[in-house]
Amino acid sequence: MSDNKILHIQKLGFQWQTEDPFLMTVHHKDAYPQGNGEQGPNASLEGRNLGEDFTTKDGFRMYHGKTVPGFPAHPHKGFETVTIVLEGFVDHFDSTGANGRYGNGDVQWLTTGKGCLHSEMFPLVHMDQDNPLELFQIWLNLAAKDKTANPDYKMLWAEDIPVIELTDAAGKKTTVRLITGNLEGKTSLEPAAASWAHDQHHHVGIYLIHLEPEAKFTLPSVSKTLNRNVYFYQGETIHVEGTAVQASHSVKLAGDQEIEISNGNMNAYILVLEGEPIGEPVAQYGPFVMNTEQEIRYAFNDYRRTQFGGWPWGPYDRVNEREAGRFARHGDGRVEER
Asked: Measuring CA to CA, which residue among 244, 197, 250 is closest to residue 228?
């Protein structure tokens, strides 16, 4: 057993620091106004650095979008993106010919594998009310043997994601949304086939935890080699094994001990990322994550030569029709509708 339960505490920035097998996490929260006819914001965009707008102004950012906020077509290779949308919608298009719209609790698990282009736009579908957006994007590395997997994605629809409700001795409630992993006798939906998370022996856990005021919750012991980080992203104060932690901080924890989390006087919202490390070298340059610098050079050459299959969708910032519901159309022709 580890001597220390709390290994490190640090303040959260825009990109949250992660550990193997995770590469990066970003929390997007934007108070978008009513939408206009193009599903962009019905508001002035003057004074923004459109195309590179990462500064919150009037409550929101346009990111790389110029008409609709979001991230127009861009390449990825060698890892996975897990996009958890708490509120609002994301329109997905990619170079395999797939597209879709998901949101309000849905999760997209995208394996970029040997390379793909994809876009992630945030359509403001409501013209008569505001369009708040909140999501996490988590980058999960692929083992070397899986970096050549065919690009594909899997939808974890909100209605199907397991929810665990626990009540402590004082009657206070904790709710856990189990994106992947095993907890309290429940098992998550199956992640993408090529994922490091697909093998349960890798103990990959992604949990969203809501604690009522004064609620208590215990993370179980898993293994000495587990990398475990708790991200306290909204609330006031929690106590982790008796140590006070303020909101907007992360806590690195021992993976082989039970960890008690006690909430203060406000609702607390926490993201937990944990897993056994892949333990392979990581060479990363922007959107490409490989094992060696030589592989990175090959990835760039491959992208220049093939464009990872090209872009069949016309505009790089394409969105679905305003009236589109939640759906996923895969590159092999399969269609899911919700």
From this structure: 250
- What gap in Å lies between CA 229 and CA 252, rounded to an integer? 4
Alpha carbons 311 and 325: distance in angstroms, whole number? 23
CA 270 to chain centre: 13
Furthest C-alpha separation in the chain = 62
Q: What tokens were used for 292? A: 């060696």
What digits encode the pLDDT tens for the residues 57-97? 999 999 999 999 999 999 999 999 999 999 999 999 999 99
Contacts 24+ apart (CB under 8 A), 163-171: 166/217, 168/215, 168/216, 168/217, 169/216, 170/214, 170/216
Q: What is the pLDDT of residues 174-226, one digit of tens each?
A: 999 999 999 999 999 999 999 999 999 999 999 999 999 999 999 999 999 99
Q: Tokens for 297, please give them.
A: 């050079």
> For residues 222 and 228, is the Cβ–Cβ distance under 8 A?
yes
Task: Tell me which residue has tokens 């949990």.
Answer: 207
> Exposed/middle/buried for 323, CB within 10 Å: 0-12, 13-18, 19+?
exposed
**Exposed (0-12), middle (13-18) or buried (19+): which is 305, by Cβ within 10 Å?**
exposed
b or e along 8-27 (b: 16 or more beta carbons within 10 Å of the residue's beta carbon)? ebeebeeebebeebbbbbeb
First-last CA distance in the chain: 46
- Parallel, antiparallel or unpaired: strands 173-180 and 205-211: antiparallel
Scanning the structure block, which residue is given the tokens 């988590």?
138
pTM of the model: 0.97
Distance CA 184, CA 166 (A): 9
Q: Running DSSP on this structure, what letter comes out for residue 297?
A: H
